[in-house]
């Protein structure tokens, strides 16, 4: 029995490839639906899985134990996003930083950061616009991934004293300096001051917290306080608070809220005039968005697979008709109906899997091209997604091929042999 089944399976695979060779155009058109369907599904899964891994890795690196406190909540609070109210909230200041440091025992690192946009950076005759300056207090480097490629990061004394020194991103370096020229100790003009460059960052891209250090300069917070009004509605300084190892994040969040309410003299019953955010909010919202995209990709792929299933069924009905005499002869010499059914069913599965494999190969080729052309996005075709593609293809083959295979297995051998 086992040997017979193995022989039937081998014959079925051979006949599937013979069908492809004998009827190239018909088979290609019929398999196109399966190929497109599997391509759509696996492509969506591959992109989303890669993005999820990238975000998860960034969150793990940055730490999910960091609170980001400012005017603006990152997500809506269950209703309309009241931007006009958030915009009027008072800014975070050194007063709030000191309040958290003094009154939140769970806080390990507390830093104040201000992103300044729309200003220009100058070096000799090069005037560079569109650069973001990150004005920071001590501890910022312990809260973000600061990877220095040349020189060093800002020292604690430079940050505390508001010394005009800067660490520049890779894109700022590329646009301000000639290739091969070291930026260390060079003077760049910013906000009417000359900043001495002490370090250059390695290219990293935008992280999950929204920082893009490639097109950025990092400077001491105190160095900009005399040049701009940090309390203005045009700027939004934010506090970043990292919990001590083992400290409960929820407890720290509660104490941070209490310390800031006390520092701002907010009365009981009045709402907070600040927002406490954390990276888990971003991942939760991204998971919701990914779920929607998954569903859309599944619908598109499902429609293509239905079309492909009709194509496979069409091939198999034609194949059964072409082999009617052959089926009659096999049954006349003792072939069991079950083996006839299995033979045609495996042939349908083989054809479907071939179409699905082509779709998976297309995903792999496109992912490889994307990886070669992009440093920020890496697409990986996982073994799990390959298995999903092959299994889905095989399932479609079973569904599409069962009726033709069942019809073939029920043919009367006498009638089949006499057919023309």
UniProtKB/TrEMBL annotation:
It is found in: Cell membrane. Residues 27-253 form the MacB-like periplasmic core domain. Keywords: Cell membrane, Membrane, Transmembrane, Transmembrane helix. It is a multi-pass membrane protein. Its main location: membrane. It holds the Pfam family FtsX. InterPro entries: ABC3_permease_C (IPR003838), MacB_PCD (IPR025857), Macrolide_Exporter_MacB (IPR050250). The chain crosses the membrane at residues 28-48, 295-317, 338-366, 386-406. Residues 299-413 form the ABC3 transporter permease C-terminal domain. Belongs to the ABC-4 integral membrane protein family. This is ABC transporter permease. It comes from Rurimicrobium arvi.
């Amino acid at each position: 029995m086992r040997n017979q089944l193995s022989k039937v399976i081998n014959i079925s695979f051979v006949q599937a490839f013979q069908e492809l060779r004998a009827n190239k155009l018909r088979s290609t058109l019929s398999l196109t639906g399966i190929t497109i369907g599997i391509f759509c599904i696996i492509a969506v899964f591959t992109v989303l899985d890669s993005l999820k891994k990238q975000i998860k890795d960034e969150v793990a690196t940055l730490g999910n134990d960091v609170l980001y406190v400012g005017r603006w909540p990152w997500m809506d609070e269950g209703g309309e996003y009241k931007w006009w109210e958030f915009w009027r909230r008072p800014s975070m200041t050194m007063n709030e930083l000191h309040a958290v440091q003094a009154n939140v025992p769970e806080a390990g690192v507390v830093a104040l950061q201000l992103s300044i946009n729309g200003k220009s950076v100058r070096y000799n005759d090069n005037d560079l616009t569109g650069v973001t300056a990150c004005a920071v207090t001590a501890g910022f480097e312990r809260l973000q991934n600061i990877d220095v490629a040349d020189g060093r990061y800002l020292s604690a004394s430079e940050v505390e004293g508001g010394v005009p020194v800067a660490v520049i991103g890779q894109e700022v370096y590329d646009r301000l300096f000639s290739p091969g020229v070291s930026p260390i100790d060079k003077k760049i003009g910013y906000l009417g001051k000359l900043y001495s460059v002490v370090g250059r960052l390695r290219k990293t891209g935008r992280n999950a917290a929204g920082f893009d250090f490639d097109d950025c300069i990092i400077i001491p917070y105190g160095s900009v306080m005399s040049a701009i009004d940090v309390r203005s509605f045009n700027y939004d300084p934010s506090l970043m608070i990292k919990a001590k190892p083992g400290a409960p994040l929820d407890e720290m969040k509660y104490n941070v809220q209490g310390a800031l309410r006390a520092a701002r003299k907010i009365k009981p019953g009045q709402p907070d005039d600040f927002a406490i955010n954390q990276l888990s909010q971003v991942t939760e919202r991204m998971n919701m968005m990914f779920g929607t995209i998954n569903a859309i990709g599944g619908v598109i792929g499902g429609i293509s697979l239905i079309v492909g299933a009709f194509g496979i069924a069409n091939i198999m009905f034609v194949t059964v008709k072409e082999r009617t005499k052959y089926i009659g002869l096999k049954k006349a010499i003792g072939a069991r109906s079950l083996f006839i059914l299995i033979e045609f069913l495996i042939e349908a599965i083989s054809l479907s899997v071939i179409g699905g494999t082509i779709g998976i190969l297309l995903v792999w080729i496109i992912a490889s091209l994307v990886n070669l052309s992009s440093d920020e996005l890496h697409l990986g075709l996982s073994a799990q997604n390959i298995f999903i593609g092959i299994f889905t293809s095989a399932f479609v083959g079973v569904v599409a091929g069962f009726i033709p295979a069942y019809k073939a297995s029920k043919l009367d051998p006498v009638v089949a042999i006499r057919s023309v």
